[in-house]
Amino acid sequence: MEKKFAQDNLSEDEHIKDKSDFLRGTIKESLQNRLTGALDTDDVKLIKYHGSYQQYDRDLESERKQKKLEPLYQFMVRVRAAGGLTTPKQWLALDKLSDEYGNGTLKLTSRQSFQFHGILKRGLKPTIQAVNEVLLSTLATCGDVNRNVMCNSNPYQSLIHKEVYGLAGEISNYFLPKTTAYHEIWLNKEKVAGTPDFEPLYHHTYLPRKFKIALAIPPNNEIDIFANDLGFIAIEENNKIKGFNICVGGGLGSTFGNETTYPRLADVIGFTPKEKVIEVAETVIAIQRDYGNRSDRRLSRLKHTIDDRGLEWFVNELNTRLGWKLASPRSYQFISNGDKYGWLKGINNKWFYTLFVEHGRVKNEEGYSLKKALSEIAYIHKGDFRLTGNQNLIIGNVLEKDKKNIEDILKKNGVKDHSKLTGLRKSSMACVALGTCGLAFAESERYLPSLIDKLDVIIRKNGLEENEINIRMTGCPNNCARSSLGEIGLVGRAIGRYNLYLGASHNGDRLNSLYKEMLSEADILAELEPIIVAYAQERDMEESFGNFVIRKEIVEKTIRPLQVLK
Amino acid sequence: MDLKKGLERGPFNDRQTEKLSNALSELDSGQLYWLSGYFSGLNYVASTVSPELDNQTIVSTTTVTEVKPEKINILFGSHTGNSEALAKNLAAQAKERGVEVDISDMASFKTRELKNIKNLAVVVSTHGLGEPPVQAEDLHKYLHGKKAPNLSHVNFSVLGLGDSSYVDFCQTGKDFDTILEKLGAKRLAPRQDCDVDYEEEAEAWQKIFLDSIVRTSEEVSNLENLNDVIAPVNGIKYDKKKPFEATILEKINLNATGSSKETIHLELDLAGSGITYEPGDALGVYGSNSPKLVQAVLEATNFDGKENVITHKGEKKLLEALTYDYELTPLSKTTLSKYAELTDNLRLNKILSNSAPVLEYLKGRDILDLLKEEPHKLSPNELISVLRKNTPRMYSIASSQKAVEDEVHLLVSVVRYNAFGRNKEGHCSSTLADRLEVDDKVKIFLDKNSRFKLPKKPDIPIIMVGPGTGIAPFRAFMQQLEVSEKRTPSWLFFGDRNFTTDFLYQTEWQQYLKEGILTKADVAFSRDQTHKQYVQHRMLENGKELYNWLESGAHFYVCGDAKNMAKDVDLALKQIIQQQGGVTLEKAEEYIKNLQLSNRYQADIY
After folding, report:
1. How far is CA B161 from CA B73, B79, B265, B530, in A?
2. Cα separation values, B365 from B215, B266, B327, B339, B423, Å
3. Contact B138/B172 with Cβ under 8 angstroms?
4. Of A329, A336, A219, which Cα lies nearest the Cα of A266?
5. For residue A473, which of A267, A445, B443, B599 sits 20 to 30 Å off, Cα-Cα?
């Protein structure tokens, strides 16, 4: 058998984890240092496991430097909600916190979490405490652990949703870190003397890198199952769950200029009965823990572990460790990775309203008070709120008689009727990028709406208003908004310059390919217009934009298709 | 090859040039090549440095002078860490070849060190579309700015990193290369631009650079001592009566956008003034009145400004006199009295008969309010006769001359308020904030303060309490300590309104702490929480330690607002001595008295 990952030449992050005393570090002391709005260097890494990224306002960077002030450090705080489900009471609490400590907005993320932005160091503890008071948590929403577990949010179509959703929550809880550091630092819990910390699965250096799990119920793939390290595809028979197909090794992040990094979709390797899902997940995580690369973080996701040693090796290792063999994958079919907007009636006879939230940003601005509208709805709403994997929101479990109230509140606050928006806009996603994300090379969320304004002119001129062409933009190749799965993908290279990718499938099972590099806005429009015109005129019936550009050989098909083992 | 011309460019006198030229001209190129290798080989031999070559003929002695290669300074500006890694590699290579190395990232590099640099290697990447990485921004800006020094004593070479898929490939490296040459530095080896796969090119450049260092070390060693700065003094002694007109070199509002305050950091050029100051001294600054206010006063008095008036500075036009020689704001008691007397105004005389109403009346008013409320027909000379002569404002100096040399730095809080229906501002602070910009001149003079000085003996701990602009002299203290390389325990208490916008000189304090020049700092920001917190609260929280410092002989300094802060700080100090020393109030007062008598409690309050 091959050796496990050599422990020499460990990356700096590994040393930090090693000496962190189960994620404590000196976070407590860092929070008390009044001379800086930042944390100590090591704590900046460790606080991720507690659900926060230290960032700074990049718009103010040079002004503050000239003024002899440190960068305006602020924190992103991510709240986990397995499957993206929250109650109206929780919604109201988050809404209030964003005003009290954050920048007055909430971001609904591409992985069904909530994000606060712009929280100052002194606001961190009260924010995290208040999140916990409403029975939500920020623990392990970032860091080298299993993150928020995604699950289709649209229960109206399937009797099995409730069960799958329950399983998502179970997985989410099961893989939480066991350290009590979080409770000591944020919730004022005393560490019980003489009880050593113990991480039965993660061990004291946790995983080599982040780990993402998702569950999907075909034919919907709005959570982009193949972008996850580990995915479970529900196989349904006579309205009962038979079990799950397992897919492993997805991950879209890459680094420009480094060819050993690349986006990769998960391969479907087998089938498991539902009782064994946690066992399978635990074993997959353990393999990644033992074999994942701990010297170069750019090469440390499960996808690299698998590619380094081969898929066959991985399946063998998994079967060996399980002590039983995965069955062959069952057939499944995904139709779309987009959201269906507006009212849909669920099988429980209640109503579900999918609301388009542009790039997931819940905010108030002139003539558009989405945040206010949603808090007003939360006050009267008796159902729930569900985040979709496309940064949108479902107002769920609404009684027939309450539909009008909700519509009125939205209308009164200037939240537009979906029918007026193009399919392109409704199928758009963008990450946060500038001015807070430290990784971004270019604008994304703040810019994409205006680019779509210009593309919409072309779209409407060609009669493609209804076509759901998905367009995704990210400020860097880390790919938070999964631009590699965009039929049109734009990835920031420098301020005002993007790489353009084309040709992803419309259901999330094929990556896009690089079309042109370093394009300005004018270049993007000039490049896309003739392709859109051709699509309007020459497409086959029901042919998606992504499939069209492949058929027309405008770009080559992505080199490595996802594999489904026999 | 013209051998003689080449030698003339070298570090030889005429006689040496002549001899060398004669001796070497007989050699063929192969022999010369052999010699070049021989000489560079000699550099590896450890020996004493002997730069005086006057009485020796190099080629005729067998033990040719051997010179240890001069130190190399390596500066890197890195974004992703590649430049840093290459810089460190270069440092290692240089050490291996026996060359002393000083390596630093550009951000923490102190520009005043430039004058001590002989050999400079710059390793810098390019960020975004041809911009310097954050780490390199300041140095890049400094070298391209008006304060850029002459660098004719520097030999340099640049290694640029970039990505050729970008238009402005390696632009920052190119910028440094160009500007260094422009500032007089000599390029030792040509710039190397490296793409994403930089290893080989970088290695080649390293070799060429190090070879040339070793080769030219002799020349370089003779270039020392060229940088002694002699301040030209033209014999004039500047003082309050004869202020120096200093050019404003830099002007920065230190408060960030959104702050409720406006505090201006000024850097003034003292070159040619002969002014020498010490930390703790103050600078007198003359302001002028805002044209808007002057115009309003002229309108209120029905003058057009062209009237002649007799001032304490001779005959002038009224407009000029009102702008530069008198003060229009704030209203002084003397002006009020003179005006009341001149106009025989009953109401004003009544107000003046009692001190409380006078203070109440003066508050927020200026001469224009008075002229409008109690109009009276005045002659131009009568108008100026009631006005206060233009009086300088004193600002504690925020720099140490040892550190900033020909400059002096000030920290000025800009006074703005609304009263009696108009927006008003401080006479001098608004001059600096609104009416003077970089390159303008401002009239200044030195105001010595022997009562606010660092301890004469080293090693004595210092406690510095300076909220708001009170921080100014402590910045001077730190600069002084840094340059003199003295390390004494030091403790700063600073406070202002809001942490994110009002932490004056924040990054400098952080750096002083990091370098150990400042031992400890405690800060209070009054408006960041519901209950206001000030420096005295931080003192009380740290009472035990503060008392221990005093007991170990610490000097206690307080600078800033006299009305509230200094009293609160004094009170806190008393409480600490009472509590920690376990003594009565009287004893604590005596303790403080003793501190004052022994010059261990010094205050610069205003």
Report:
1. 18, 10, 35, 50
2. 73, 28, 13, 14, 11
3. no
4. A329
5. A267
- Spell B120-151 as b/e; 16+ CB within 10 A means b: bbbbbbbbbebbbbbbbbbbbebbeeeebbeb
pLDDT at B217: 57
Domain that holds residue B168: 72-229
Q: Which two tokens stand for residue A275?
A: 């009782």
The architecture that CATH gives domain A423-551 is 2-Layer Sandwich (3.30)
pLDDT in tens, A17-65: 999 999 999 999 999 999 999 999 999 999 999 999 999 999 999 999 9
Q: Which two tokens stand for residue A530?
A: 């003739």
pLDDT attached to residue B25: 75
Domain count, chain B: 5
**Which amino acid is located at B321 in the chain?**
A
What CA–CA distance (Å, rounded) separates A350 from A343?
10
Instruction: Output the pLDDT for position A561.
Output: 87
Task: Report pLDDT digits (tens) over A181-193.
Answer: 999 999 999 888 8
Percent of chain A with pLDDT over 90: 88
The pLDDT of residue B57: 37
Interatomic CA distance for residues B361 and B365, integer angstroms: 7
Rounded CA separation A549/A533 (Å):
12
* pLDDT mean for each 10 residues of chain B (606 residues): 66 75 74 63 43 39 53 88 86 88 89 89 86 87 89 93 80 94 91 84 88 66 36 68 96 96 97 95 96 96 96 94 95 93 93 88 95 95 94 96 96 96 95 96 94 92 97 98 90 98 98 96 96 97 98 96 94 97 96 93 93
- Please give the pLDDT value at position A316: 97
Out of A70, A441, A493, closest to residue B510 by CB:
A70
When mean pLDDT is compared across A207-216, A410-419, B424-433, the lowest value belongs to A410-419
Whether residues A60 and B257 touch (CB distance < 8 A) is answered with yes
Instruction: Based on the residue annotation, tell me whether A142 is a catalytic residue of this protein.
Output: no
CATH topology for A342-420? Sulfite Reductase Hemoprotein; domain 2 (3.90.480)
Q: Do B519 and B473 reside in the same domain of the chain?
A: yes
**Average pLDDT in chain A:** 94
Look up residue A136 and give its amino acid.
L
ipTM: 0.90
Residues for chain A: how many in total?
566
- Phi, psi torsion values for A13, nearest 5 degrees: -60, -35
d(CA B156, CA B489): 39
Chain A residues inside the 8 Å CB shell of B500? 37, 72, 120
Q: Indicate the Cα dihedral angle B266, B272, B274, B279, nearest 10°.
A: 20
Would residue A247 show up in a list of annotated catalytic residues for this protein? no
Q: How far apart are CA B348 and CA B375, in angstroms?
A: 12
- Residue ranges of domains in chain A: 144-175+207-337, 342-420, 423-551
Report if residue B438 sits inside a domain.
yes
A539 is catalytic: no
In a domain, B497, yes or no: yes
- Please check whether residue B127 lies inside any domain of the structure: yes
Q: Where are the beta strands (DSSP E) in A338-379?
A: 342-345, 351-355, 361-362, 364-365, 368-369
- On chain A, the residues whose CB falls within 8 A of the CB of B506 are 35, 68-70
- Fold observed for domain A144-175+207-337: Sulfite Reductase Hemoprotein; domain 1 (3.30.413)
Which of B106, B168, B503 best probes binding to A when mutated, by most A CB atoms within 10 angstroms? B503
Per-residue model confidence (pLDDT) at position A87 = 96
| CATH number of the domain encompassing residue B181 | 3.40.50.360
Whether the Cβ atoms of residue A509 and residue A472 lie closer than 8 Å to each other: no
A34 is catalytic: no
- Of B70, B67, B3, the C-alpha closest to B40 is B67
